[in-house]
Amino acid sequence: MLLQVNGVTHTYRETSLFRRRVAKAPVLSNVSLTIEEGKCVGLLGTSGAGKSTLGKVILGLQAPQQGQVLFQGEDLYQASAHTRKRLRRDLQVVFQDCYSSVNPRMTAEQIIGEPLENYERLSVGEQKRRIGDLLEMVGLTPADMRKYPYQFSGGQLQRINIARAIALKPKLIVLDESVSSLDMVNQTLILDLFRELQSAFGLSYLFITHDIKAAYSISDALAVMEKGKMVEMCHDKNGIFTSEHPAVKSLVSSILPEHPRQRVLLSR
Amino acid sequence: MNGQQSKVLQISGLNVKVKGKHGTLALLQDIDLDLKRGQVLGLVGESGSGKTVTCHSIMQLFDPHQIMVEGSIRLHDRELNGLPEQEMRRIRGKEIALIMQNPISAFTPVYTIGVQFVETIRTHSDLTKKEAHELAVTSLASVNLPEPDKLMKQYPFQLSGGMLQRVMIAISMCLRPSVVIADEPTTALDVVNQLQVLRQLDRLRTECGTSILLISHDLGVISELADEVAIMQQGRIVEKADVFQLFDQPQHAYTKKLLNTRPTIPMNNQ
Ligand SMILES: Nc1ncnc2c1ncn2[C@@H]1O[C@H](COP(=O)(O)OP(=O)(O)OP(=O)(O)O)[C@@H](O)[C@H]1O
Ligand SMILES: Nc1ncnc2c1ncn2[C@@H]1O[C@H](COP(=O)(O)OP(=O)(O)OP(=O)(O)O)[C@@H](O)[C@H]1O
Ligand SMILES: [Mg+2]
Ligand SMILES: [Mg+2]
Questions:
Q1: pTM of the model
Q2: How far apart are CA B216 and CA B44, in angstroms?
């Protein structure tokens, strides 16, 4: 098993100095999840359900109060610094908020080059070529290398983040709403790229999204969270349409048809 | 009311260029758009085609030393392009509100949601602090945010992506502006909350006559709300049509491609 999340519970601590501590409901309560090598698990759920928090726990960025995260059999939060560095190479992320996950003073070349410099010692020319290839894979051009984040549109910057995440051919990528800001043509390009990497390198994904169609099209299994709990786990993704859980039913029934003649909300 | 008067926002001959080391680069070319009272105009297009640049030009957010905005942007009878910053500041938020593509950058990290919300309301109205607070809480509840009172005391980083996006939507709608520019307003939202936000936007346009420029790559969102749709590619509008016509008889090759690449799911009518 590539990733095993066992009974994770987490509560964010109150940070204000002036307010009394109040007992808060856990953001994650007893959440478990497994991802096999080469598989994609789609994670759905209403806003605030705890999906991004679970993503951070899996990435080793948010130590949970209870439970454990095993990545390639090693406990992420117990491992030595040396092991963690090795594990981190195989564990990449594309965050929901693409603007704050890049340094505004770095060019696209530096942003994508950062993981390559940390882990692979390439010659200057070789590294440039790799970055150019990566940019083309995500539908941009090598000429975009010299640009700074503010010179990119939202969707372009998101693709820079995707290029950085796949640069080291990791084992698992956590994709937190990573394609939601892309137009349909580019979204299809990226989803195809993910599928290709999946079969070529056995890459696995945790695909966090609100887009049920995109999740369905790329995932092998689908999971649904609600108020900090894992409420549905469909190992066969088609199970999502027959689930009896009210949270799942409400999600599935709110999918909008994509034609004005089928408007559900506004019958004008 | 004749046709001319019913136009709330009228953009004509909009050309936007950026100054670079090697000369200037065109970001937008010959954009013409107009919005009538209560109308929703959908703007759909390729990533990087200039949708956000269009919004920022209307709001006059660019530094004129770096980016040149040419052409006319009329709000009612007033030319916005080139208006002094001081006057523009009075228009932003009150007459034209922008729901930004990237919610986190709309907030200051060191102040609570409540402080920022109340401040925005009070800049543009003569409500008391208490009245502004009440209006803020009601607006937060209207976008389906649970425990709005508690939320007012939280900092932006303590909210999830979708919660922050809804706070921004609440702020931009509560002053009932004549125009709302919504740049990917529901990208971070799950389908249930998305529906709720669309309902609120529709109420705003029917009850207050607000005109909406709706940018979204989500064809479901566009088909629910838009009356008319403009398709953008590489800084130009390549097709503009009534929403039914656009979905039934797309003309431009890019539009056809857009409508045909969507993954499908095994459900009725999907
Ligand atoms: N740093 C933080 N401090 C305090 N509370 C937080 C913090 N980050 C998230 N939360 C709270 O945890 C809950 C879950 O947030 P999370 O970001 O995991 O949700 P999500 O499922 O990713 O939602 P969305 O779909 O809107 O992105 C929310 O109620 C949020 O307010
Ligand atoms: N400040 C800037 N300086 C230089 N180029 C810029 C600047 N801002 C945007 N651009 C360029 O202008 C083009 C249009 O960008 P814009 O943000 O309007 O795209 P968009 O249609 O909103 O795309 P998306 O759907 O990805 O958000 C892009 O190619 C981008 O690289
Ligand atoms: Mg999230
Ligand atoms: Mg944009």
A1: 0.92
A2: 6
